[in-house]
Automatic annotation (TrEMBL):
InterPro entries: GlyceroP-diester-Pdiesterase_M. Residues 273-378 form the Glycerophosphoryl diester phosphodiesterase membrane domain. This is Glycerophosphoryl diester phosphodiesterase membrane domain-containing protein. Residues 33-50 have a biased composition (Pro residues). Residues 65-94 have a biased composition (Low complexity). It comes from Streptosporangium carneum.
């Protein structure tokens, strides 16, 4: 029973007078005790808090008034009442604390990547080293855009001549139309096969250093990549053969069926099914082999080993890789179209209304080439960065490669710079448990996890 003075028979004397409301006495309250009891200790020796042995009373946070409770502070009514009511205000509940922030020395966090990390890392690849990335991409884009621009300028010039003379624009010169519509794109594809292959290899080497926050010049990137050029060409050529030859056989059979059959509906259905099958086949192989070029450059493997490595890394992750490649391809196409569209319109206007003159065709070709170059200059490194970061993500997920990268990044931060030997980390012999041989990449490489 309470005696009306804020204490019970089981509580020590003077306890209530030292406690904040509602347990203590409020100053000026009519229910306050008139004075200390006969058993109260002297003011020079305040009693210890309830449940402690000689410890000074809890004073609360520095910014809180004396004796006033504060959200997030320690309970002031005895230790037996606090912890059982759960965490204090402002503190995350047990088991729901946010995960620690991943180490991010360069363009990506050193952990398995999400879609946003891959897209953001590809953009940061361009921004982190714009001279080397955009300079090399501009050369590749210009070489691939010029043949298409010339072909389109010839077609536009022919169209302008037909409109000026009142002729049927469709019944023009078959030779000019062939050069403009077919020779230009075919030449562009052939040029792209060479320059884009080289570009992807060089950009992959730049990306391998940018993951750690290091920069590399275009000359150094080419010096480190030129030894892998034959392998890159072999990888791309073998991929093209694997995709193109079965497609050619399928459409050849459809053509023979069309010649031997008089039922156009059946041939049309077969052609539609064959087209869908060819698209699915090409998408499947392109996705499973997309990591071959990064593996050839960073892991320094041969042609067949690079293709096998890509097939192994994409096992069990086909749909995720396909979705990322499809989305980034759509983004790259839209960006290139938006950038090149004004130049294409200007070139078309100059070619059509220039009455087919040589000067008008040159102006049209230059404008179209500028638009195509600027668009491809941005999209080429973006797509190459997506492929390289997808390769890094698959190694992190399948091989716990992020632990190797984190160890290397910590050592680099301690030293204050990114050493060129960080390139050796991408070789399989540099990973924990690898079997690097003397004289081979990865043997004795720092931060290798050995």
């Amino acid at each position: 029973m309470s005696d009306g003075h804020g204490s019970t028979p089981d509580t020590p004397p003077g306890w209530a007078s030292n406690q904040p409301p509602p347990y203590g006495d409020v100053q000026g309250s009519p229910w306050a005790a008139p004075g200390p009891g006969p058993d109260a200790p002297s003011p020079s020796q305040p009693p210890p808090p309830y449940g402690s042995q000689g410890a000074p009373p809890y004073q609360g946070p520095p910014h809180a008034p004396h004796g006033q409770p504060q959200y997030g502070g320690q309970p002031q009514h005895g230790p037996q009442y606090g912890p059982q009511y759960g965490p204090q205000y402002g503190q995350p509940p047990y088991g729901h604390r946010p995960p620690p922030t991943a180490l991010r020395p360069g363009i990506i966090p050193l952990r398995p990547l999400g879609l946003g990390d891959i897209i953001d890392g590809s953009i940061k690849l361009i921004r982190s080293n714009p001279k080397a990335v955009l300079g090399l991409s501009a050369i590749a884009a210009a070489l691939s855009a010029i043949p298409v621009a010339i072909g389109q300028a010839l077609v536009l010039g022919r169209l302008g001549q037909s409109l000026e003379s009142g002729e049927d624009p469709i019944a023009g010169s078959a030779q000019t139309d062939y050069v403009g519509q077919y020779a230009g794109p075919f030449t562009s594809y052939a040029v792209q096969f060479v320059v884009v292959t080289l570009l992807s290899g060089v950009l992959t080497r730049i990306l391998g250093r940018a993951v750690f926050g290091g920069k590399i010049t275009a000359g150094e990137a080419w010096r480190l990549t030129r030894g892998r050029v034959p392998t890159l060409f072999g990888v791309v050529a073998l991929e093209a053969l694997i995709v193109v030859i079965p497609i050619g056989i399928v459409f050849g059979l459809i053509y023979l069926v069309a010649l031997a059959s008089s039922d156009g509906a059946t041939v049309g259905v077969l052609a539609l099914l064959a087209t869908l099958a060819v698209i699915a086949y090409a998408a499947f192989l392109t996705t499973r082999l997309v990591l071959a070029a990064p593996a050839a450059v960073l892991e320094r493997t041969g042609v067949l080993a690079s293709l096998s490595r890509s097939w192994q890394l994409t096992r069990g992750s086909f749909w995720r890789a396909f979705g990322i490649l499809l989305l980034t391809g759509i983004i790259a196409s839209l960006v290139a179209m938006v950038i090149s569209l004004p130049f294409t319109f200007a070139g078309a206007f100059a070619g059509i209304f220039g009455q087919g003159g040589t000067r008008a065709q040159i102006i049209a070709a230059v404008l179209i080439a500028i638009g195509g170059t600027i668009g491809s200059m941005i999209t080429f490194p973006f797509q190459a960065g997506v492929s390289g970061l997808l390769y890094a993500d698959r190694r992190m997920r399948a091989e716990a490669f992020d632990l190797v990268l984190q160890t290397a990044a910590i050592e680099q931060q301690r030293q204050g710079w990114v050493h060129a030997s960080a390139d050796d980390l991408w070789t399989p012999s540099a990973t924990p448990g690898g079997s690097g041989q003397p004289g081979q990449p990865g043997q004795g490489a720092p931060w290798s996890g050995h």
